[in-house]
Each structure stands twice: as C-alpha cells, then as structure tokens.
Design brief:
Length: 133
C-alpha cells in the first residue's frame, strides 16, 4: 500500500511550502476549495503524477516535537544522485541546517532541519540505494 500523503502542521504555511519547493524541487498543487483553513499541497512524486504529496496545514499553536532527529521522527525522501551536492547548497543557502547521519550506510544520505518549523528530513541518494538492493 503506497503512501498517499503526509500532513504536517505549521504556523507559516506559505514559508514552509516555499522552502520545500525551492530547495527540493517539489511542485505546489491546487488544494480543494472545501478545506476550511490555510493549507498548501505539494506534489513530491518524481514522476509528477500527484501520487505522493505533503499537505502543510496551518496550526496556530504548532510546536515541533523534541524528537526530530535520525533516531526519532523524521521524513525520509529519495533524491537523484547527480543533484545531491547542489541540493546541499540550496538547503544551506535557504537556511536549512545540514546534519551528518549517525548510522553508516553503503549509500549517500544526509539529514537537514528545515528552518521554518524545525522538521528533520533524511535525503537518500536514490541511485546508490537502488544499486544496493
């Protein structure tokens, strides 16, 4: 059963969506008009078929978990190997905090904390990961 979407809370929906789209290359998509609060829906599918999404939802009193880290809560995504170095540069240029992994793996990966809410994302080199399978 594939993942359809992940919903995350934010006090600043627009800034969160802008950061994720500008750095990770994801695409904003139209949210339904019947959503009763500020939201941003983002297509995170590599094929751009809208089969996987992140929904960012405004939560006035949102507070990030104290357990955002590698061995805690984080969002893991695959990324094209040829763009990994450039992605690191985009993330730091936009205020993201890069973190080295604790657990070694035979494929390239790293973590970053996004600067708006403090969510932690793991980025995995999808080309190297496939080669390991």
């Amino acid at each position: 059963m594939p993942l359809a979407h992940l919903a995350i809370g934010s006090r600043d929906v627009e800034a969160t969506a802008e950061f994720l789209c500008q750095t990770l290359g994801w695409t904003p998509i139209h949210a339904p008009s019947n959503v009763p609060r500020q939201v941003a829906w983002i297509d995170i599918s590599s094929e751009r078929d809208r089969s996987q999404q992140i929904h960012i939802i405004y939560v006035a009193d949102f507070a990030i978990s104290a357990f955002e880290r590698e061995f805690g809560r984080h969002v893991a995504v695959f990324h094209e190997g040829r763009d990994m170095a450039a992605l690191r540069q985009r993330l730091t240029a936009q205020g993201g905090e890069l973190m080295d992994p604790i657990r070694p793996t035979p494929f390239e990966r790293f973590f970053f904390r996004e600067p708006i809410n403090g969510y932690v994302f793991e980025v995995i080199n999808q080309d190297q990961w496939r080669d390991e399978k």
